[in-house]
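Customer ticket, subject: "Can you confirm the structure for Deferrochelatase?"

Message body: Hello, I'm evaluating your service for our small team and ran a test protein. I'd like someone to confirm that this is what the system normally returns, since I don't have a reference to compare against.
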Amino acid sequence: MLRAEKAEKAEKAGNAAEAAPEGGGGLSRRRLLGTAGAAGAAGLLVGGTAGAFGAEAVRKEPAPLAGVGSAAVPFHGEHQAGIVQPAQAHGHLAAFDLAPGADRRAAAALLRRWSATAAELMEGAAPRDDTSGVALDAGPCSLTVTFGFGRTFFDRTGLADRRPAALEPLPAFTADALDPRRSDGDLWVQIGADDALVAFHALRLLQKQAGDTARLRWQMNGFNRTPGAAAQPRTGRNLMGQIDGTNNPKPSDPDFAERIFVAGSGNDWMAGGSYAVVRRIRMLLDSWDHLSLERQERVIGRRKADGAPLSGGTETTPVDLNKVGPDGSLAIPGDAHVRVAAPASNRGAKMLRRAFSYHDGYREDGAPDAGLLFVAWQSDPMQGFVPVQRKLDRGDGLSRFLSHEASGLYAVPGGCAPGEYVGQRLLEG
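Agent reply: Thanks for trying us out. I re-ran your input and got the following:
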């Protein structure tokens, strides 16, 4: 009898909360579902007290989102999000091919749907037609969604005459072992968020919305350090344990916009856009781990503990490529990664690296299938990525511990204004 009375009270409390208006002092539907879910989970643990606990939990207004959950990045603007923002803790990269028969009009409708969904999700809102509940009650968590076009997209939409010259295929490199099934693609999507469910939710919705218009070609998952995991903000580390990204161009650099974004105005559909080079680079971690710490540092050209160059100073001290040690040898070896990749060694070539680490289990030989989802941004890949990779391909000591297994180059249009969609100037111009 007592149990029945408690159940009746819980049901009345739940009905009252469900009837409460979404505005004013009532709970939003989003918060209500999350709170009720928490109460239900607790009920499984405490048995007969679930009813009383559930009624009390529904009455309380949840604490506001703070920190990671509340951080939001605007979808609309001159540039697409996901380029200059720090890489988030969780990332997904995916490429789609247009389905047979999908034309320019179908592609435009898809980009319109995708853009509207991305804008809502990046605000922390739930799209109207989404009933999945995957990220229910989560805030935006710094979510960014970025869209790009591969070379083949222009042929399949009848827009070959508007394909930019910078979208020429990347040259072959001797270290390449590329899998075509995990390379290229008509449409490219980059998703990042500081919460794994928020990132997955965005990926899942976009994949579902592709419908009969586009088919998934490949998809990769990545991660970085979670915000707050370190005592203070630091440059990230890769799976080799090395600090990675110290010499990245910074928005405060006088030539940053010129190096990273495409100039233009009016009907130039790439104005404000950028080019993304995407590479799946497997790290041969078993071989790397067999090196002594001293040898690892000489391969990279930096100290592992703090990222300082072997020429001296701290992490942010400019690398002195001319410095020699007491024995007369170069402080930074001739094949060290930082030397070979330095702008001074590549006629000033620069790119903005925004990578995710990945781990896809273990290979048949027991070695980890892990490494870097390398994403590099530049205004012209033939002036950014290509000359640097050519130099690395010929003389980088680190290349012996890497295998480039997938590759893609994508034209990423500029951002869009409210009421517009990404790529509209191309598809309706």
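A couple of notes from the result: The CA atoms of residues 34 and 137 lie 6 Å apart. The longest strand covers residues 368-378. Feel free to reply with more questions.
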